[in-house]
Amino acid sequence: MVADAGAPRMTKSRMEAFSDGVIAVIITILVLELKVPHDESIEALAPVVPVFLSYVLSFIYVGIYWNNHHHMLHATHRVTGPVLWANLHLLFWLSLVPFTTAWMGENHFAAAPTALYGVDLLLSAIAYWMLQQVTIASEGPDSLLSTAIGRRDWKGKLSPVLYAIAIPLAFWSPVLAQSIYALVALIWLVPDRRIENAVKVGET
Amino acid sequence: MVADAGAPRMTKSRMEAFSDGVIAVIITILVLELKVPHDESIEALAPVVPVFLSYVLSFIYVGIYWNNHHHMLHATHRVTGPVLWANLHLLFWLSLVPFTTAWMGENHFAAAPTALYGVDLLLSAIAYWMLQQVTIASEGPDSLLSTAIGRRDWKGKLSPVLYAIAIPLAFWSPVLAQSIYALVALIWLVPDRRIENAVKVGET
Amino acid sequence: MVADAGAPRMTKSRMEAFSDGVIAVIITILVLELKVPHDESIEALAPVVPVFLSYVLSFIYVGIYWNNHHHMLHATHRVTGPVLWANLHLLFWLSLVPFTTAWMGENHFAAAPTALYGVDLLLSAIAYWMLQQVTIASEGPDSLLSTAIGRRDWKGKLSPVLYAIAIPLAFWSPVLAQSIYALVALIWLVPDRRIENAVKVGET
Amino acid sequence: MVADAGAPRMTKSRMEAFSDGVIAVIITILVLELKVPHDESIEALAPVVPVFLSYVLSFIYVGIYWNNHHHMLHATHRVTGPVLWANLHLLFWLSLVPFTTAWMGENHFAAAPTALYGVDLLLSAIAYWMLQQVTIASEGPDSLLSTAIGRRDWKGKLSPVLYAIAIPLAFWSPVLAQSIYALVALIWLVPDRRIENAVKVGET
Hints:
The structure is a homotetramer.
Chain A: H1 12-29, H2 48-74, H3 81-95, H4 97-106, H5 111-139, H6 144-169, H7 174-189, H8 192-203
C-alpha cells in the first residue's frame, strides 16, 4: 500500500528479539552492582547482604515484566510505530532498575533510595499500561488482547496505586515501603488462573 | 553457483539478530555510566541529573537507529559482504555512544564533550547513509528500498548537516549544540506519515 | 480454550531466546572481573592468574548449563507458567556465578570464597533439577524428555551430592574442594554416549 | 533413533543464536574499557587515543570472526557435541579480547601487553581452526563446507603463522608486531573473491 509505505510496520518477531535482548542484559548486569568484597572472610559478605536482597527483588520484578511482556505480545498481531515507541519507553524505565537497585542496596534500604526505587517501579508500571493501551488501540476493542487484558487488569491497576502509596511511606518507614514492593511482586508471581478463579467465585 | 561460493552471502536474519544483540547491549550499558551515589540523601542525586539527561537523549538516539535499521532491513532482500561491513561500521560508531554520553554527562555538558558527542552522532549518521547506499547498490535502483528511501530521505540528509553545524557551535554555546541534537531526535521521533503528508501538502 | 486464556502459555522459542541471551551475557561478563593490571610487565599478570583459572572453570560450567538446558528444551513441547519461573530461578543462580567467581579468584581460592562458589553451584544444580521436574510434570511420565532424562540422570543426581561434600571441605582444604568442582565439570564434559555405553556394559 | 537419544544433537539455530549473543556482548563491552576522562578539555582525550586505536583493531577482529563464523555455520548441517564444545572453546578465547585489548591500550602498546594480545589472537585462530576441523569431520570430506574451506584456507593457515612471528617480535618492536596484527586483519577484510581470483590467476 502506498499510503502505508512510510509508516513503521515493525515485525513482531524483531521487536520481541530486541526486547528479549534488552531485558536479558538488564537482568544480568544487575549482578554487576554486587561489588566483590576484598576480604576473604565470610564476615566480608555482610555488607553485600542488603545489596543481594535488593538484587533478588529486582530480578523477580524484571522476570515478571518479561513474562507479562511476552503474554501481551503473544496476543498481538500488529506492531505499529506508537507500539514500538511505547515499548522503548517501557524498556527505558526498566533499564534504570540496576541503578535504583544498587543505590537502595548500598545504602541499606535508606529512605530516599527506597522511594526512588518505587518511583522507577511506578514509572515502569505506567509505561507498561501505556504500551497496553497503545497496543489495544492498534488491535481493536474486540481483539484477543483486549478481552484477555480486561479480565485480569486488576493487577495492572492495583500495582501503580500501591507504588504511589509506598513512595511517600518510604520517608516514614522504608521497611513498610519495601514490604509493599515485595507484596506487589508476590501478587504477580502467584499463578493467574487460581486468583482469577477466586475472583470469579467472589463475583458470582 | 560456483562463482559466488566464496563470496559472503549473509543471511538477513542472522545479521538482524546480531545487530539487535549489539544495539540491545549498547542501549543497556548506557545505564552503567550512571554512577551510583555513595550518599543516601536525595541531594546526592543532583550530580547524577546531567548524566541522566544525556542518558535520556542517547537512549532515544539508539532507539531511533534501531527503528530505522529495522525498516531498512525490512525492505532488503540480499545481504552481501559490503552490506555486512557497512553494518559493522555503523555498529562501531553506535558502540561509542555510551562513552561520549558519559563524558558529556559527567562534565555537565561542557564544550568539548558536547562537540565530541556531536562528532559521534555525525559519524553514525554518515555510517547509516553509507549502509543505505551499499544496500541500495545491492538491491538495485528499482527496488522497494530505493523507492521507500527516496521518499523520506530529507531526514537522512538534514541530520548530518545539523550535526555539522552543532559541533563547532558547541565551543561557543554548548546549550545551543545540545538543542540541535535534541531537535534532530525530535524530527525522527515524530511519525513519518504525518510529516510526509505535510510535506506533500506543501508540495502541492 | 477459555479456561486457559489467562494461563501462561509461553512459546518455547521465546523462552529459549531469553535464556540464550541471559546465559550469553553471564558467560561474557565473567571476563569483566579480570581486572586489567596497571603495570605493563609480564609479572603484573601474576595476580591475574588465579582469577583467570576461576574464570576458566566458570566458563566451562556455564557452557555445560547452556548445553544441558538446550537438550532439556529440545525434548520439551509445552512451556507452562511453572516451567517459566523454574527457568528464571535457574538463571538467577547462574547469574551469581560472575560474583562468586570473582570473589574466589581475587582471594586466591581462599576457604570461604571457595565454599560460597560451591554453594552457588549447588543451588544452580538444585534449580536445574527443579526445572527438570516441573518440565517432566508438564510433559508427562511417558514423554520423550522423561525417558531421555531417566537414562542419564546419574550425573544430575551425583553432582549436588559432590557439591554438598565439597562445601564443608573447603574450610579444611580449599584445593580439595576445587578439585571436586573440576571433577564434576569433567564428568559433564565427557561425551554422554560413551559413558552411557560404559554404564550399560557395566549393568549388563 | 535409540542409539542417538542421549547424544547431543544441538540445533544449528540455537548455537547460532547463542554465539551471536556472546559475540555481540564481547564487541560491545570492548567499549567499557574506554575509561571516561574526568577532565572536560579536548586534551583529556589524549590518553584515550591508544586505547581507542586498540579498540578499533579488536572491533574489526571480532567482526571478522563473526563473519567467518557465520559462513562456516551457513555451510554446516549437523551440530554435534564436539562441534558445540569446539564452538565454546572459540568463544572462550574471543571473550578474552576485551581484557587483552584494554591491557595493550592502557599501556600504550608496550611490549608484554602487545605480545599477550597476539597470544589471544593466536589461540583464537587455533580454536577457529579446530572448530573447522571438527565440523568438517562431522559433515564429511565431500560436504559443501569441506569444499568451500579447501578453496580459501590459505588465510586460515597464514594467520596463525603471522601471529606466531609477531608475538616474540613484540618484545623487540611492539610497533612491528601491531603492524602484523593489522595486516592480518586487512587480509581478512579484503573481499574473498577478488583475492581468490588473483590467487587463481597466479596459479594459472
